[in-house]
Amino acid sequence: MKTEGTENSKSASEMPDKILGTGSQNVALKREVGLFSSVCLIAGIMIGSGIFMSPEWVLYYMGSPGASLLIWAAGGVLSMLGGLCYVELGTTIKESGGNYIYLLRNFGPLPAFLYMYTTLILTGPSKTAANALSFAKYVAAPFYEGCAPPQVVVKCVAAICILVVTAINCFNVKLATGTQNVFTAAKLLALFLILVGGVVVLIRGQTMNLQNAFQDTAVGFGPVGLAFYQALWAYDGWNMLNNVTEEVKRPQKTLPRAILIAIPVVTFLYVMVNVSYFAVMTTNEFLTSNAPAVTWGSKILGTWMWLIPVSVAMSTFGTINGTTFAAGRVWHVAAREGHLPDIFSMVHVQRLTPFPPLIIKAFLALCMIIPGDFVSIVNYCSFMTWLVIGVSTAGLLKIKIIEPKHPTSYKVPIIVPVILLIASVYLVLAPIIDKPQIEYLYAVLCILSGIFLYFPLIHFKCHPKFLSKMTLHLQLFLQVVPTAKNID
User: Fold this and answer.
1) By three-state DSSP, how is residue 481 classified?
2) SS3 helix, strand, coil % of the chain, rounded to 5?
3) What pLDDT is stored for residue 24 in this prediction?
4) From CA 395, how far away is CA 390, in angstroms rounded?
């Protein structure tokens, strides 16, 4: 948060320059994310444990294999439409921060602050902790055959995972993106293995599970919306590259190219992996399996089925690394805009990585591992994902209508954001209308509770007097300095 009085803020930013010998005006996040790393960041975050462990929920809501495959394909199409809209947003508003900066520039500080408050401080660390616990279960499982691993072991492994990912992202950008590239390649190979296994089964003539593919298909506003909701969670992450726009090399070219490569590849793999599942398992086996990929592996891979749990663990680790890399930049930008303490807008003077936000994000995730009882909060706040996408898309429509000749290297037809906005409204309302629960009200109240922080701290700038001195001491301890925007 910006402190009152120019003298305090000046001393808090200039003194480290004298001690560290670096002028803050010359420090900025470097453009080190090329096309290959951009594709790996998008695909690596999108491909989490969901496609391996929970596609049965799409079948559960739709009732038939054929309708389920249509939902998976449609989810990819909708993600592509979203990706195209976000390319125009990213090439028009050239700052990092993704949804946060788009809300701020189009609708003002309050919506942006509420988004930052909810996703970065509440649901973001919760999702990181949940992914880390999922990773830990698969890492620990081989050491406890025949029984579930003890909770203390799972939580310790999860904590180690978070600390390792944080260390990787603090060290430098190249190590973080290199790690993402390696784990994304491993995920793609795992999905390709399942794809090939299914194709071999189909070539051998085992197609009975796909006959009458649309029998017992469910229809209605609710079931289709809930099935879409489940599939789109597996696609979540297609807009993460916009969080790091200022670190992307030649973003005007890299953003659209990365989207046009990553999303179609992931969509093709998701659809074909589900075809493979259906080729090997009956509908009843699919629905009763807690982990379809594991069931598939036990039928096809035999003694090599250990590849599936390893793939899930690697997939989850890559997702944690990718989201940590992207989310750290949103903290950085939010602090730069005055919505978080100044210390979070600073980067390490030598490594040029946002140390403070990465450290606090890890701390919050570690705290949430301890109780492990936060899944319901994440689930009921999850509808905010498409709420925010819808509002950001409305911001793009606002730009296209008010400033039709706005400077950008890439524009989509206006029908594309209109379709995305309608789909976003549908996805927000469908689960609430189909199965209204009091928890959704709690989630909304949780989001709106940020208003009680916004007005005193942001609008009226009522900051604690010790904040400037604390910022100064943390700067010296962490060896971090303020940064300039890196906008070409």
Assistant:
1) strand
2) 75, 0, 25
3) 47
4) 9
Neighbours of 235 (CB within 10 A): 23
**In angstroms, how far is CA 94 from the centroid of its own chain?**
20
Tokens of 460: 């009226």
Q: How far is CA 135 from the centre of its chain?
A: 16
CA 21 to chain centre: 36
- What is the DSSP track for 372-393? ---HHHHHHHTHHHHHHHHHHH
pLDDT at 225 over 60: yes
Query: Could you please report the per-residue DSSP string of 192-259?
Result: HHHHHHHHHHHHTT--GGGTTTTTT---SHHHHHHHHHHHHHHHTTTTGGGGGGGGBSSHHHHHHHHH
Band of residue 254 on the pLDDT scale cut at 50, 70, 90:
very high
In 3D space, the residue among 362, 329, 427 whose CA is nearest the CA of residue 164 turns out to be 362
Which pTM was predicted? 0.88
**Cα 86 to Cα 242: distance, rounded to the nearest angstrom:** 7
Structure tokens at 325: 């890399």
352 pLDDT more than 80: yes
Name the region of 3 (left: φ>0; alpha: ψ -120 to 50; beta: rest): beta
What is d(CA 391, CA 368) in angstroms, rounded to the nearest whole number?
29
Q: Tell me if 315 sits within 8 A of 323, measured CB to CB.
A: no
Cα(394)–Cα(404) distance, integer angstroms: 14
340 in Cβ contact with 331 (< 8 Å): yes
Is residue 268 within 8 Å of residue 77, measured between CB atoms?
no
Contacts of 70 by beta carbon, 8 Å cutoff, 6+ apart? none
DSSP readout, 333-376?
Answer: HHHHTTSS-GGGG-EETTT-S-HHHHHHHHHHHHHHHTT---HH
For residue 249, what are its two tokens? 């090399």
Counts for the chain of helices (H) and strands (E), in that order: 22, 2
Give the largest CA-CA distance in the chain. Answer: 78
**Mean pLDDT score across all residues of the chain:** 86
Q: At 257, list the tokens.
A: 């190219």
- pLDDT digits 0-9 by tens, 115-174: 999 887 777 888 888 889 888 888 888 788 777 789 899 999 999 999 999 999 999 999
Give the Cα separation of 100 and 388 in Å (integer): 9
